[in-house]
Amino acid sequence: MRAAPARPRPTCSQPPDHPGRRGSTAIPAPVNLPNPTNDASVTLAVNLLKSTGTDWTKLLGEARDGKGTNFTRALIVTAENADGDRKKEAREALPSASAG
């Protein structure tokens, strides 16, 4: 009795252009986060998550350069809900703990 030839195992069950796949350039679907208290940081995060192209870059820069906890919270919420390169960019925009 012969053994069946081994089939290559897929490295990822998602198609190459799926937003959740690492290195994907696909734009993720907009995320609607609940915001019953109209929190400014959640509103900014939703705007970031819904933005595309140059709007993403502009809003991310504004959140990165903004002063105060609302901007930091917006970046955290964005990083938690984004996928792929956007998640990485949002994390990189967060202030480091050693920054003065």
Task: Describe the model.
There is one protein chain. By secondary structure, this protein is an all-alpha fold. The protein has a domain of 51 residues. The longest helix has 13 residues. It is elongated, with a radius of gyration of 18 Å. About 8% of the residues have low confidence.
- Quaternary state reads single chain
Which range does the strand content fall in?
Answer: under 5%
In angstroms, what is the radius of gyration?
Answer: 18 Å
Could you say which overall geometry the principal axes of the C-alpha atoms support?
A: elongated
Q: How much helical structure, as a percent, in the residues?
A: 40-55%
By DSSP, the count of extended strands is 0
Architecture blueprint of SSEs:
Layout: H1 40-50, H2 53-65, H3 69-81, H4 84-93
Keyword list:
single chain; elongated; 100 residues; mainly alpha; 47% helix
What can be said about this structure in brief?
Helices cover 47% and strands 0% of the residues.
